[in-house]
Amino acid sequence: MGKKAYILRRLIQMVLTIWVIITLTFFLFRLLPGDPVSMLVTEDISAEAQEMIRKQWGLDRPLSEQYLLYMGNLLQGKLGTSIFYKVPVWEVLMPRLVNTLILMGASMVGAVLLGGVLGAYLGWRRGSGSEKGGVVAILFMRSIPIFWMGILLLMVFTYWLRLFPGGGMHRTGFVAESFLGNYLNVDFLNHLALPFLCSLLYNIGDPLMIMRSSMLEVKGEDFLTLLQAKGLSESSVMRQCARNAILPLATYVGILAGYAFSGQVLLETVFSWPGIGREIVWAVFKRDYAIVQGSFVLMAFVVVVTNFLVDLSYGLLDPRIVYK
Predict the structure, then answer these.
(1) Is residue 324 part of a domain?
(2) How far apart are CA 275 and CA 95, in angstroms?
(3) Is 64 exposed, middle or buried (0-12, 13-18, 19+ CB in 10 A)?
(4) What is the CA radius of gyration of the chain?
(5) Residue 225 sits in which domain range?
(6) In a domain, 189, yes or no
């Protein structure tokens, strides 16, 4: 199978995966107890008025009809209208998705790069004191729940040292003059520091251990002995070893995207970060089906596309890869 056929097959798989996630999300949330109409009415509203509200939002229709209508809207790029906010879901979720992607993207890049470098070093220094201490420290940090790590960082850097703000994305009263002005300023970076550090410390463990294990496998290859015999320095040989050991780490990037999204819910709640994770929590409490469904659709799309791009990057990382 050629590269084009492989890409076409992966695209079909990507579409089917997103469709399955959308379908499961749609029906699962409608099987949960509770009615979103209860968030819009009070006890003094008559049953007839409640039924009119259900009809207005299409909740009186059979589930199969609601599902077909929802899928039809999705094909047109519509995620529906929020029951609570009374505005299109896109308007609610897109700013929050951008906030989440900035925080998640920065911490993921930092975790993969720093974890890859440290993992390569620890793998190369197998048996040394630094390797043993580094592995223990990383495993200790990975065992701490992300919400607990966030609380510890807030306690130390916000309430004791008073170096960083305790939550939010901007100081009270901040008004951005433009889209980029909302993020390209010192105040935003100051608020980003603690949640970024928390996510980085929590996610760095897996990339580090994967790169370390991969280095240990490549370290015994004959080509490294040949490079050493040619008189290359230890640092040059280590770089060549790391280059050949990086493929498993690239594979994990797609998995890390899913883990990062799941951790965002707790992380954004602890730091009051106005992202899509915290919005999901509020939407569940308010039984806003449209917001929850739209959130899962967007997150599934980002994760699936990330895995697709990772698969395509294999050929660039290792020319020996053959698409079959």
Answers:
(1) no
(2) 8
(3) exposed
(4) 24
(5) 92-286
(6) yes
Could you tell me if residue 75 is inside a domain? no
What's the token pair of residue 164?
A: 């960083």
Neighbour tally for 156: CB within 10 Å: 13
**Tens of pLDDT, residues 200-233:** 999 999 999 999 999 988 887 878 878 888 888 8
Whether 79 maps to a domain, the answer reads: no
Residue whose tokens read 């797609």: 254
Instruction: Give CA angle at 271 (270, 272), nearest 5°.
Output: 95
pLDDT tens track for 292-301: 888 888 888 8
Q: What value does the mean pLDDT take over residues 157-168?
A: 92
| Contact indicator for 199, 104 with CB cutoff of 8 Å | yes
Segment (H or E) for 281: helix 276-285
Q: What is the CATH number of the domain that holds 151?
A: 1.10.3720.10
- In angstroms, the CA 45 to CA 36 distance is 15
The number of distinct structural domains making up the chain is 1
User: Across residues 297-316, what is the average pLDDT?
Assistant: 82
Inter-residue contact 292 to 284 (CB < 8 Å): yes
Note if the pTM is more than 0.90: no
